[in-house]
Design goal:
With about 150 residues, the chain is an all-alpha fold. It contains seven helices and two strands. The longest helix has 16 residues. It comes from Friedmanniomyces endolithicus. It is found in: Nucleus.
C-alpha cells in the first residue's frame, strides 16, 4: 500500500511538475558552477585522472562545454579567479612559472584551460604535476600579501 506525504496540518501538498533544469533543488547552472570551482583543487583533478574520467570523450566534451565560464558575464560567479589580470597562457603546462602572477588566471580558470589539453589530461596522474599546480595556486593567492 502506497503512503501519501501529508503536511503537519493534515493536507496533501500539491504535486509539482518536475522541472528538468532542477537537480536536487539546484539549477543546472549552480551545479556546473560548483563543479568548475572544484577544478581549482589539484587533488580533485588527480582523482578524475586516476578514475579515468579524463579519458572519457563525453567528459572531455563536457569540460569543453564548461569553457563558457571564461566569458565576462559568467566570471563573476566564480570565487577562485582573478579576471583583472588574466590573459590566455601560451606556455605548455609543464612550464610552472615562479614569477607568473601577472598572467595567472586563478586556479579555477587555469585548471579549466589545462584540462582542454590532451597531454595535461594524461599527465594529471603524476604527483609532481599536482604538487606544482598546488604551489602555483598558493603563490598566486598569496602574491602581494605580507606575513
Amino acid at each position: 500500500m502506497a503512503t501519501t506525504m501529508m503536511n503537519p496540518n493534515g493536507t496533501t501538498p500539491p504535486s509539482r511538475p518536475r522541472d528538468p533544469d532542477f537537480y536536487a533543488g539546484y539549477t543546472r547552472f549552480e551545479i556546473e558552477c560548483e563543479f568548475v570551482q572544484s577544478l581549482s583543487n589539484p587533488l580533485y583533478i588527480q582523482h578524475l585522472a586516476l578514475n579515468k574520467y579524463l579519458d572519457d570523450p563525453a567528459f572531455i566534451a563536457y569540460l569543453a562545454y564548461l569553457d563558457y565560464f571564461r566569458r565576462p558575464e559568467y566570471l563573476r560567479f566564480l570565487l577562485y579567479v582573478n579576471p583583472m589580470t588574466w590573459t590566455p597562457l601560451p606556455t605548455p603546462h609543464t612550464e610552472i612559472r615562479a614569477n607568473g602572477t601577472n598572467r595567472y588566471p586563478g586556479p579555477t580558470l587555469r585548471a579549466l584551460e589545462l584540462l582542454q589539453q590532451e597531454q595535461f589530461r594524461k599527465d594529471a596522474v603524476t604527483p609532481a604535476l599536482i604538487e606544482a599546480m598546488a604551489r602555483e595556486g598558493f603563490e598566486a593567492a598569496t602574491a602581494g600579501t605580507h606575513v
